[in-house]
Amino acid sequence: MVLGLLQVYNALSINELAKKSEKLREQIRLNNSMITTQKLTADELQSIHNIEQEALLLGLEASHEPPIEIERTIEP
């Protein structure tokens, strides 16, 4: 009788631990996804910074004028 109760208790404990484990795995997947997104953003910002530094070395500066849109016409 006691052995049967222990087996039931152990089975329930294993099921509960499996649920907790799956929740933790999902949190890890989410965190890894967020970290990857942050790394991509950091890489993009670093790239923009590098381009800006190279432009400054070449004597180029950012324009304070708004960009001009050029209309492209297709001739027949």
Automatic annotation (TrEMBL):
<protein>
    <submittedName>
        <fullName>Uncharacterized protein</fullName>
    </submittedName>
</protein>
